[in-house]
Fold this sequence. Notes:
Elements: H1 7-17, H2 34-52, H3 56-62, E1 65-67, E2 72-74, H4 79-88, H5 107-120, H6 122-141, H7 144-156, E3 160-164, E4 180-183, E5 189-199, E6 209-217, E7 227-233, E8 235-237, E9 243-246, E10 249-254, E11 265-278, H8 284-320, H9 344-376, H10 380-416, H11 418-421, H12 427-435, H13 444-455, H14 458-476, H15 484-507, H16 512-547, H17 553-569, H18 572-580, H19 585-588
Parallel strand pairs: 3-6, 4-6
Antiparallel strand pairs: 1-2, 4-5, 5-11, 6-7, 7-11, 8-9, 10-11
Helix pairs in contact: 1-2, 2-5, 5-6, 5-8, 5-9, 6-7, 6-8, 8-9, 8-10, 8-12, 9-10, 9-16, 9-17, 10-12, 10-13, 10-14, 10-16, 13-16, 14-15, 15-16, 15-18, 16-17, 16-18
Amino acid sequence: xxxxxPVKEHLFLLNEVLNLQSYSSLPGFADATPDLTGQLLExxxxxxxxxxxxxxxxxxxxxxxxxxxxxxxxxxxGFVDAYRTMVESGWSALAVDPQWGGQGLPGxxxxxxxxxxxxxxxxxxxxxxxxxxxxxxIKYAGDDAQKAMYLAKMxxxxxxGAMNLTEPQCGTDLGLIRTKATKDPDGTWKITGEKIWISGxxxxxxxxxxxxxxxxxxxxxxxxxxxxxxxxxxxxxxxDGTPGERNGFKCVGLEEKMxxxxxxxxxxxxxxxxxxxxxEETKGLRLMFVMMNEARLGVAVQGLAQAEAAYQAAAxxxxxxxxxxxxxxxxxxxxxADPIVVHPDVRRMLMDSKAVIEGGRALxxxxxxxxxxxxxxxxxxxxxxxxxxxxLMTPVVKSFLTxxxxxxxxxxxxxxxxxxxxxxxxxxxYLRDSRIAxxxxxxxxVQALDLVGRKLPANGGRxxxxxxxxxxxxxxxxxxxxxxxxxxxxxxxxxxxxxxxxWLMQNGLANxxxxxxxxxxxxxxxALAGLAYMWARMAKTxxxxxxxxxxxxxxxxxxxxxxxxxxxxxPEGAAHLAKVKTGAGPVMALAAEAF
Length: 595
Ligand SMILES: Cc1cc2nc3c(=O)[nH]c(=O)nc-3n(C[C@H](O)[C@H](O)[C@H](O)COP(=O)(O)OP(=O)(O)OC[C@H]3O[C@@H](n4cnc5c(N)ncnc54)[C@H](O)[C@@H]3O)c2cc1C
């Protein structure tokens, strides 16, 4: 059975757990009634299941083709039409401000669409995803003329965007960037250099592609402090916005990759291309972070989305495939064997996946809800609190959901047995496609460093103090007896998080390698605390419905899955804490030449 969008899960989170209606005083939220949300997500599901999903295997098989003579890139069969349908239906502009042609709905609704699109076809969904990141950077730092020229066209998807950071000698360390920008007398800039692995750097959907290029201006200092960001359109628009003269850069080739074959990964060569400075000179990296923070949340969605699609395929397979008998006696006595879903070890993989997906989805939706609040609230204190949550949780959801997303895809392949390793089933594509999400937009190792080095100490640790207080407040609320294990789970996770944070404060500054060596485990402790909190909130909602007579097994199943998380996944926190507390010693003891 092909991917089915988890609309019921989304509606449960939006309407019941996060209770979007309680934010109706905020702009855009009043329109997000349960009726509208339901209709919108059903429609989104039809588009993603009906249009994008059937193209997923096509994209994987065909990949993108580069024509060296014209530097053009042809995307897989069907992608151009699907893109046109998506743009015409307004899917890419759901949460964009109406002044730029969007529908002004909350970002969490757009998130639900993005998850479905990425589950259905990750390679395709990357094209609008990157455009949105570039849109945000121009919205944040562009002057009025730049905003008027680019924002509406990019918001609606008429033009696409791409981000150009990476060069052959630098990925993580952008301070090594060599691409140069020299100023022309007319105030524009000439960009010269090479960029590699640029997603959507060339394609055949849109009449223009707006590249944001990170480059070093003449005389600027070495390192990241010398970088500026330039709007570099493929076709230079005339005053009326019509794409005009071809700019001096091109795609000189495509990368052969392990997955996401339907997405073009381009080598770009800039040969004196015309660029327009975005924001201030030498402040490019700060701007790039606006774009990257948003893109990191987008990558977290990819981890979740691939996990959901792979899990669904595994669950279907496990119900169908007949092998062996249940340890407790035949469950399918009429058949030659029982379906493999009866075996506890298969159940273990499915339950691990389900518990992480549902808890992880809640954490991501909760984070994006705070991003919405930060954007539209007029209450300064509320905005600051919301921004603290987004800043703290962005590296956590990016890293945790992509690490675990890949694990879910690997387990999905395992559930399929040998069939999963063949191309007859989709498990192999999910595994290959999902792997990149742990690497790009800042590797997961870099996310963990960002968490312990920047996000945690920012503003004297304000975001962490507030998160710990929120866990305490939840645990102190009166709760039904059935929720006691969930409240205990929150208390345990909070105490591990507090202990790990104190350890970092005491030992991280004394020896920065202590912070570096424990960053991955610390991030996981925070992620598990986030999931424990989300599972407790979901359990509370579900228990409330059951207590008021709800018979839909959806709610009882939430409690069962939540209990699985508490009993079989949350205990990992203790191991992570033990590893945090070893510090750098065991990690750094071996001499480099001993590897
Ligand atoms: C399919 C694909 C699409 C991409 N799309 C884009 C795009 O659209 N635009 C763009 O600009 N780039 C893009 N990239 C590049 C991507 O963002 C980089 O690959 C990524 O940032 C990592 O850089 P790197 O590959 O140079 O690895 P490196 O920086 O060389 O890192 C190698 C390893 O060392 C670790 N490491 C490096 N420095 C540190 C440190 N200081 N502390 C701890 N560990 C460290 C890393 O975590 C990693 O494990 C894409 C890459 C791929 C493969």
